[in-house]
Structures are given as structure tokens and as C-alpha cells.
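hi! just following up on the protien thing from before. the input was this:
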Amino acid sequence: MDKKQKCYIYTRVSTDIQVDNYSLDAQKERLKAYALYKEMEIVGEYCDEGKSGKSIEGRTEFKKMMDDITNEKDNIDYVLVFKLSRFGRNTADVLNSLEIIQEYNVNLYCIEEGIDSGNGTGKLILTILAAVAEMERENIAVQTMEGRKQKARQGEWNGGQAPIGYKLENHNLIINEEEAKIVRLIFDKFVNTTMGANGVAKYLNSNGIRKKKYKNSILNLFSAHHIKLILDNEVYCGKIAYGKRKTEKVKGTTKKIYQEKYMLCEGKHEAIVSEELWQKAQEKRKRTGNRYEKTYNLEREHLLSGILKCPVCGSPLYGNISHKKDGKIYYYYMCKHKRTESGHKCTYKKQLREEKINEAVIEVIKNLVNNPKFAEAIKLKIGSKIDTAKIDEEILIYNEQLRKYSIKAKKIDAKINDLDVDDECYDEDYDFHYLKLKTLRKEIKDLKGLINTAEMKKYNLKKEKVDIDNIYKYLLYFERFYNKFNDREKKKFFNSFIDRIEIYEEEQTNGQLLKQIKFKFPVFFDGQESTDLSLDNNTHVETIICLSKKK
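and the predicted 3d structure came back as:
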């Protein structure tokens, strides 16, 4: 009789209230019915209630399930989910999690879509559907933003706390006359006196005029920053702005980035100051200081900075921006190292047009991945097993030694407990056994440390394999994914598999600038294994035909 397959079931809802087809009870009922039909044994149930599928962060039950799988707690064969979107909506998380569980011979089955990751077709469909699930989430966000944009077009308040000078009634802005007097005073003092934003704030505070405390604020004193926000807010002259500020995560922080172009509509609310007075305030703001802070633009990155190398001194080339008299902005790569390692000055003063270099590198990558043999080699490597036999053997030996030492320690401990305190040799015997026990305990502690180190090596190998496989996937579908990335993601993508790019000091007669690309993983071309792809005119390179396992 065949061995009964074991499985975990995982359920998730994004909010406390879900339609019947997606409720936790409905999901569990369908999953249990399927397991019964397939004669699978459910050995674990995991449920995240009210958790978003945007990423695995915050989904404690999902993480617990993954830990149980990697610890081989129940040696299961399948994870059952109602739909792929319940497993996750972020493509990278879905694929990473899938890679990890399959390393432990565990497959994913989505009963609604009938997809089994255990076969090649199912895995391909999972990859596509994971991308669709992520696009679905993005579409919901776009639809929400479109709704807000439409409200702005209609002149309606778009939500949030009412700005000083107004109050909200049935989602509409109504003038709060007591606060409106403060707003009018701010505009009057700024426009009709020599006071700046800082001077106006000092004037209000010294005269006992206070601002209302917002939800997260502590102080009710005015600051120059708050005065500037009031002066720049179109709502006070009867307008509704949309898309003026965009919230983005930059290097782990959240920043509000001001946009140069945004939508401005006539509001349904009553203005507190005239449009003429508001415009005068803007003119003075431009004269007395920068209105907007310097922004970090996700759509304008120096893609190859750091990995593109100077042909003279070998130092990294970095991005540079040039503003021309015709008002256009040009982007360049240039060497900013004044001296070489030997102490001599770097003589490379050229500024390389970013667009030209970027396009050349993209063209090389496209030619690389579009070769059928290269694509075939990548497909063979994705999901291939990694060799952990040596580490597994180490762990086995250490665990066997640990078992023996633990038994010895227990026996010595028992001997110590059996000693007769009235025996004249008690102290001598106790010291003898205790010294042996102390030595054994140190050996046990050291062995546990060795086991932990070996298991960490094994974990890192598997994680590295997943990371490399993801790079291979992106390379395989390079043209499909690349144009969907913003510049920051493109830069991260290049840095994930390119170690360095070397260029000629002078442009070649055929217009070629690229000399060599060094990859972060070994490749085969021209019959030899190497990490270097030579683009030298004198070297004939047919193509890279296959990838080698990373050593």
C-alpha cells in the first residue's frame, strides 16, 4: 500500500470582513475536502487573519509554517492553499518561498486554479500567476488613485485632516472663521511686510497665537516650516491640488517628494485668501528661498555607476548632471578620482553620455539571453539541487558525538548523585567525577556550536541558491521584466549579476566603447569557463552558451 502523503494547509484573509468565497472558514472547508479527496493527511494548519499578502513580513503564521518546513518538523509533501493570492501577492516572495519549500521536497497546490508546482507546467503557470496577482494588487492601488484624482477634478476634498482655517462637515471643507483669521494674518504679514516665514512664526508665537494640535503633534507653536506649508497650499485660494507630493521609500525611510507638475482644479470650498494674494506669496517665496527640497527620483538613476570602471586608473565611474543653456539636462559618467593608487593624477577627463553606455550594455545582455543555448542552460540550472552532502555528513558526525557525550554526561551525573556523603572518600570521588563532567559539558557546548555553524552554512547555501535562481529567472525574461523596472530597480538588477564593466579609453573606429564585462558567476564561452566576457575587436566571441555552477 502506498504511503499516505502529508500536507499543511494555509489560509489567509486581508481584512476581518471577507466575502464568503474567501472567508477563513470557506477556505479551510475547501482545503480539508480536497485533502480528504486526495487521501492526504493534514498534519498542520496555519492561518493569518487580517494580514495583507503584499509581503511575508507581518504574516507570523506563514513564517512559522516556513520554519516548520525547513526544520523538517513533519516531513510533509504538500502545502495546500485555496488560491495563489492567499499564498502571496508579491511575485518575488511567492517564488522565493516556493524555491525554499521545494528544496525540502515540498510542493505547493492551489486548488482553485488546479496548479501543482510538482510538475514543470505547474511551476511555469505559478510564475505567471504570481506576476498577475501582483499586478492585480497594483491595479487596485491605481483604481484607488484614479478615484481620488476624479474627486480632485470635481473640486472635492480628498480626505485627511482639514488644514488650519477649515473644518470638515460631511467630507466637505467649511471655513472655521476663528482659524481663518490666523491664515489671513499669515499671508498679510508675509506679503505686505519684510517678514520671512521665520519672522511670521516668531510674530505669531510672541503674540500668543497658537495653531491647533494635529493627531501626532505635541507642540502648538508655529514654526517656519509650518508657515511655508500654509503659504504654499493652494486650498487657501479656493483650489484643489492632486499629485503635488508623492510618498516614496528611499533607503529605508519614507519621504514626501514634491512634483514640479501636478493637477490643479477649482475647489467647491470657499477661499480664505484671494488668488491674487496667494500668487504674491508665491512670488516672494521664489525670491526668498527654494520652495522644494532636493528630491530622490526613482525614475532617474545612474544605472551603471560604481560597476563601470575608469579605463585609466580603474576606479569606479560615477554619474554627473549637466544643465545646458538650452534648458536641457544631460547625464554623464565620469571619473571623480583625482589621483591613482600610485599617487599620479588620473588623466581621464572625458564625460561619457549615460544613454549611450547604458544602451550598449543592455544590447550585450539582450544578445546574451536571446541565444537559445543560453536560455536552455539557464532553465536547466533553475531549481537544480545543491550539493550539501559534505555539510550533512559533518552534521551527522557532530550529532553522533553529541549523543555519545550526552549519554556519558548523564551517567557521570548519576554517579555523582549516587555518592554516599558519609563515605570518607566522598570529597575526592565528587571532585574526580565533577571534573570529568565539566570537561564533557565543555565538549557538548563546543559540539553544539559546530552544529549551529554547519547548519548556518547549509542555510546560507540554500538561500544563495534561491538568490542566484532568481537572477537567472530575470535574465531568462530580461526583455519582459526590464522595461517594467524603475531606474532604482534597474540599477539593483545590474549590480546583482555584473561585477565590473571595462571600457576603452578612446572610442573605437566602429563606435564601440565596451571592452569587457565581468560577471559575478562563472560562464562558458569560447570553450572555456570564465567570469569575463571579452568584447575586444580582436577576439571572436560567438556567444556565451551555458552557465556553470557557482563555485
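The longest strand covers residues 514-525.
The longest helix spans residues 426-476.
cheers
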